[in-house]
Amino acid sequence: MIDVGLFNYWAVIVLMMVGFYTLIARGNLVKKLIGLNVFQTSVIMMYVTMGKIEGGTAPILVESGEHVVYSNPIPHVLMLTAIVVGVATLALGLSLVVRINEAYGTIEEDAIMDEAL
Amino acid sequence: MTGFVDVALLILLAVTGVAIIRQRNLFAAVMLAGIYSLVSAGLFVVMDAVDVAFTEAAVGAGISTVLMLGTLALVGYKEHKPQHTPILPMFVVLVTGGILVYGTSEMPRYGEADNPVHLHVAPHYLEESEHEIHIPNVVTSVLASYRGYDTMGETAVIFAAMVGVLLLLSRGPLPLRVFHKGQWVTLPPGARHEDPPRAGVPEEGDGDG
C-alpha cells in the first residue's frame, strides 16, 4: 500500500540522489558543485516538509479572534542558516576551482589526475 | 493528503535535476540550477516557509547563479564526455536511496499536528514571542533573539569563507608547472599551458610539492 503521508520524503530522496549522482559520476568540478547545491536544497526541503502542519499558515502572527494554526517556525530558522552557509561554501569551492584551473589548465577531474601522476 | 501543487512542483524539480545531469554545456546547467532554486522556492511557499522561500530565491537563485557564471567566465563552459561507465555511481546512488527510503518508513506522516517535532519548543515560540519579543514574525524573533547565537555562528562561518576566498584569489596567477620527461618543470611567466616546456627550469626534488 502506498502511504501518501510519506510521498514528500520520497520525492526529496529522489532529488537528493540526483544531486549525489551528479556529484560522484561527473568529472567536471563546476558540475560537481551544482550537484552539491541540488543535494543541499533537497535537505532543506526535507526539513521544511517536517515543519508543515496541514491546514496551517506561515508563522506570522495575525490579529484575529479565531483559532489560527501556524506551521512550525523552528525548521525554517535552521534552514535559513543552512542556505546562507551553503552559499558561503559554494563561493569557497568555486574559488578553489578557479585556482585549480590556473594551476592545471583544466577543471576536468580525469585531465587533472593524468597531469598530477 | 499531499496537495496537487506540491506534487506538481516536486515532479518539475525532478525533471530539472535530470536535465542538469544530462546537460553538458555548463552555462545551460547553471541556468537550470537557477530554475531549480526558483521552483524549490515556490515549493517552500506551498509548505508555509515564506522566509526560507525568499532567502532561497534571493541567495540560491540569485547569488549562487552569479557566482557560478563568474567562475564560468574564468574557466570556460564546455564539459567533457564522462570517461567512466556510470554503472558504479548508479549502483551506489540506488543503494543509498533505497536505504533512505527504507529509513522513512518510521517517519512521522506529513502535515500532522501531533508529530514530535511540533511538541517541544515551537508552541512556546508561537504563544509567547509576541509578548516577549514584540515582533509578529515568529521566524524573525527565533532567528534574531531566541537563537541569536546560531545566527552569530553563521556570521562567523561566512567570515571564514570570505577570508578563504580572498586568500585563494588575491594572489596573482601561480607559475604554471607541467610534468615533462619525468620531472616537474616550472614554465616562465607568460607561458601558456599548451607550450612545450623547453624554456622551463627543472625543479629539484621528485615533484610532490
Relevant terms:
heterodimer, A: 117 residues, mainly alpha, Helix Hairpins, 4 helices, B: 209 residues, Four Helix Bundle (Hemerythrin (Met), subunit A), 3 domains, 3-stranded antiparallel sheet, 7 helices, 60% helix, extended
- Examine the coordinates and then state which fold CATH places here, giving the name of the CATH topology of chain A: Helix Hairpins
The largest chain-to-chain contact, stated as pair and per-chain residue counts, equals:
A-B, 90 and 101 residues
Give the biggest sheet of chain A.
Answer: none
The structural domain count of chain A equals 1
Rg of chain A to the nearest angstrom?
Answer: 20 Å
How many β strands of chain A by DSSP?
0
Strands of the widest sheet of chain B, in order across it, are 1-2-3
Strand coverage percent of chain B: under 5%
| Unreliable residue stretches of chain B | none
Rg of chain B (C-alpha, Å)? 25 Å
Strand content of chain A: under 5%
Tally of separate domains of chain B: 3
Q: Which stretches of chain A of 5+ consecutive residues score pLDDT under 50? A: none
Order of helices and strands of chain A: HHHH
Short description:
The complex is a heterodimer of chains A (117) and B (209). Chain A is mostly helical and 117 residues long. Chain A is built from 4 helices and no strands.
How would you describe what is shown here?
The complex is a heterodimer of chains A (117) and B (209). Chain A has 117 residues and is mainly α. Chain A is 70% helix and 0% strand. Chain A has helices at 7-25, 29-51, 73-104, 109-116. Chain A is elongated. Chain B has three domains: 4-107, Four Helix Bundle (Hemerythrin (Met), subunit A) (Up-down Bundle), CATH 1.20.120.1200; 123-172, no CATH class; 175-209, no CATH class. Chain B has seven helices and three strands; from the N terminus they run H-H-H-H-H-H-H-E-E-E. Chain B has a three-stranded antiparallel sheet, with no helix packed on it. Chain B is extended and about 70 Å long. Chains A and B meet through helix 1, helix 2, helix 3 and helix 4 of A and helix 1, helix 2, helix 3, helix 4 and helix 5 of B.
